[in-house]
Amino acid sequence: MANKPDKLDPVWDDLDRTMGQLFMMGFDGTSVTPQIRTLIEKHHLGCILLTAKNLKSAEETTKLCYELQKCAHDAGHPVPLIIGIDQENGGVNSLFDEIYIRQYPSNMGIAAAGSTDLAFEVAKATAQEISACGINWIFGPCLDVLTNARNQPLGVRTAGDDPQEVSAYGVAFMKGYKAAGIATLGKHFPSYGNLEFLGSTLDVPIITESLEQLSLSALIPFRNAIRQGLDSMMVGGCAMNSAGLNVMHACLSEQVVDGLLRSDLKFDGVVVSECLEMDALSHNIGVGGGTVMAVNAGCDVVLLCRSFSVQQEAIKGLKTGIENNMITKERIYGSLRRVLTLKSKCASWEKALNPPGINFLETLQPSHTALSTKAYNGSITVVRDKNRLLPLTNILDSEEELLLLTPLVKPLAASAASRVLEEAATTASPEPATWERNASVMSGERVFRELGRALARQRSGRVLHTSYTANGVRPVHENLINRASAIIVLTADANRNLYQHGFTKHVSMICNMQYTTGGEKREKPLIVVAVSSPYDFAMDTSIGTYICTYDFTETALNSLVKVLYGELSPTGTLPGTISKSQKLQHSRQHWLVEMFNEERDANALDNLITAVIEGASPNQRSELSSATSNSFILRHPEVEESHFVVRNSSTQALYGFCSTYFFKSTGTGAIGALFVDPARRKLSIGHSLHNRAIQTLLQKEGIKRFQLGSRLPSIFLGVPTGHNAERKRLRSWFANLGWNTALSRPVCSMVARNLLTWSPPDGMAKSLAGAGAEFDLVYGWDYSGPILDHIKTSNRQGLAEVYKLALSDPAACGIIRAKRPEDGALVGTVVLYNQHSRLAEYVPPLKDLNETAGGISSPVISPAVGEYSTLLQGLILLGMRQIKAQGCNACLLDYMDGDGNFDGFSAMGFDVLHNYEEVSCDAATWSMIPPA
Length: 932
Fold this sequence. Notes:
This protein is of the alpha/beta class and about 950 residues long. It contains 30 helices and 33 strands. It has four domains: about 20-50 and about 60-75 and about 115-365, TIM Barrel (Alpha-Beta Barrel); about 380-580, 3-Layer(aba) Sandwich (Rossmann fold), CATH 3.40.50; about 595-740, Gcn5-related N-acetyltransferase (GNAT) (Aminopeptidase, 3-Layer(aba) Sandwich), CATH 3.40.630; about 750-920, 3-Layer(aba) Sandwich (Aminopeptidase), CATH 3.40.630.30. About 35% of the residues lie in helices and about 20% in strands.
């Protein structure tokens, strides 16, 4: 036998007072208006909806809530008003305040951050902030499962398309709201996640799924939230049309509310109807009749957003329905009990008349600001970065221009007030709308302008910014694309704004058809950023670099800038099943890395070198052109070398090779080469080799710094930069591994040909005579003392080892010295060698010249010398004369750094052979790296 309901206080015998508790109404204005005062005092209105049109700031909101509660209290209401708002975060907030109310990611943005604990904390913080202003009911969590991303308006307001994931985050949000002491409302039952829209506002969106289909997917989050104590539920105004189910409006259907929600899902909380002012519902049925139908269906609270005349019509309709016995008093008092139970959880006169307000918000501000930053930083998702365009510092030089292309969009609007907000945006008025005044919810145009400025502040080069519309790619866009060195295109719900999709694809096509001045095809870097729905280009792999921010608030775009410039490593992942349907960039294979075994791997390394040479671009000379497996083996007593391979143990083929050297004289660990079979790139072989190399060098006693590139052996002097597109790709690749490529220094190999017919430029000999130095050429170890002391004035890696090799090989190497005449002190030295020297074995470019050649290596000029360039040119000039005298027709400068006078060398007859960027960092820079 069912328990008899608790006896109600006699005050509720007044039917008008009771009916007032069953309505939730909104109004226009930022203070108590005569209309809302009438509804509270005369019609005993018990629930109020506030939207963006009512709320100017946290302080004004606190004042408004207090005035509403005071009005109800003075009118003799037995219980306080329940005051609700939409505060979903992202772009759907009703209350904004730059100082006191923090912005947090949207529902889907939080899910992208991947933590239900974070969801709880954000929900709790959101609820604390609105509660401090006197609001006690939040219209959340959003429990819709996004089963039709293309055709419905929810977008990032839901956690995604996986019912279990939506459920987990929905429950976490709900618990966070409850922890702050406010009432919760699940929406939009039975799901807005798969609606079919027919076009006209008078057409009702339709759910076409059967109850069985809904039960298996869309209803799961609602069912779980009910079990965990959800306080109230909003039932949508959509139609339902499937086998055994034909409903014009769900919130007016007894089959949906009393049947599906109450009986099947056992929900005994407060049921709220969709706003009965929505065009389709009021046009088809009328508000008076709709109110009667909603209450009879099982709705406890009928929502009417704004029109005073319509609100009066609804009250009259409910009263007429009771008087005509269309609605039983049992139904009315059952709803009243549920409303009073809800109010007992979140409202009291003590709280209502003493909202904490600004003072409490000030205490929350520091921790909530940190939480907002953490949440946004964690949500930014790099879905793909095929060509390693991130961070931008790796692909853009300071003099190059960056182009930002952004759509013209309206801000997102809270659900119950969406029409009102849109109207406010288009009303001609000297006073901007609330959302326009506040930087937290700037219009798309304004917030994107701020994004452009933020990008510009981060780089010395120019940022070009223009918008695009449904007019497509115009000549101005084409001109800017051709002019810029990299492009960023923003999209906002391109699935529903198809012009954005078409524009982005057109820009992608233009970028793919770019050509260099030499006529070579070169893909221009393009980054696409979806600033709302991640579904815009999630599955379109032709967009090689794709980032999702999940909303376009200023806070979200600040985190985006950090990701674009490498200040923040993105950790967000696409929520829902979409991330499971594709292999994302974040998953990497870890290959078995083995020590190089010369006997076992030498022939295979020669084959790998051949494959890399053949895989180079047609117009690009490979640095490995004359290298062999022997080129990497130093066997130097003062250099510890360790080399690594990734190989196929069955076929013995090498897939990748990495050489490392530890120069004890300077404490430098160098990666001298790192290359992978072109047919097996982008499989993480290089990552695995690199990680093993760093781990090994970290173990060296006395390690002080790391370097990309090695003077000895002189194969790769750094990151190869001779080919622009390849340079940017490699810089980006190494930057992603942790190297600060922004602090690189240029180095190169140079060659002078036709030496037998060469003569020094006019005036150079005279200039040499004025250098204030005496020059001589010495051979052998007997001269080592002063020379080795002299080169200690430079801490460059490999110098000592090059000189010791030369001093130990007097038959094929010499050293030109420059001495101060007055005391004989060394002020400059340079190494000479020929093709028969041992040093030449480690300089493949010398063999690559395919003619009789000699080399000049490792000039060292004393820091105290004033005429640095003159002295350096003098040493090189004398070296060239000596090499010419030996019958050589070519001279190689195998390692010249950016401090040298390249123009001066060009005047002497040298051309650049290979360009590199040497990258160095302190050993302390490297933290522990995951095992390869």
